[in-house]
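Recall the central idea of this unit: under ordinary conditions, the amino acid sequence of a chain determines the structure it adopts. In this exercise we apply that idea directly, starting from the sequence alone.
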Amino acid sequence: MNLRFFQSARPCCNPLRLMVFLFLAICGSAHCRPADEFSWPAFPTPANARVSWVAQNMRYNNVPTQIRMMELSEHPSVVISFYQKLWTLNGAKVTVMELKPWVVVSQTRGPCHFTVETRAVKGGSESVLTVSRLPEMVEQARRAKASGLEMKKLGVGFPMMSGSNVDMDMESFDEGKQGRMIMHKNTFTIEDNALYLREQLLLQGWRRIQDNQNKDGRSRVLIFTRDHQELTLTISRRQSQTEIFSNQTEVN
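Accordingly, the structure predicted from this sequence is:
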């Protein structure tokens, strides 16, 4: 587990990157399903790179996804150059975008979208390698339109106050990392969200075991248990909105 990576990530990361770091730090819960039978393409890496799995069988906002972490004792420019040259060979467009301190290199090829997010660290670089299966998302939309049904909504099954928007719904089905993390936000106060979620979760059979509020009143953490599961809610205020992050884990 690379806690240094996780601890330094929050100020600059997008929702997917934040979830990657959280999955590195904690393992989650209860929606286990069979291994994905899709034949995932190879994701080449530079020589001497140290690569580890974050998730081999995950759904990120309903899209099948694989995520790896890569560390290299070379500057990020080496990583960027490696993928620019490699991916240019197949003729598909390669996009490079700077989102300081990260540089993102991406390409859509065949049935998949590949992304490399890299940044400089002491001693070299570290990167998040992601490949997503886009056609399934397109096919889901086509079938839903043809049948007059809506696509599966993000955050389904989790209680939320009226008007909430879901930024992230991420499920991992890897053995030992099975879990679900949801991030949503609304304009209600921290107290309103805490009271609503507490009431709804109690009705679903959860038992509250912890409720801690920050001294400045800008964040609150609630922990619930049910059967062999634990649910942690982190509620925080950011400008004019309240963000609610939930992590459901299996308790051994």
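Residues 1-13, 24-35 have pLDDT under 50 and may be disordered.
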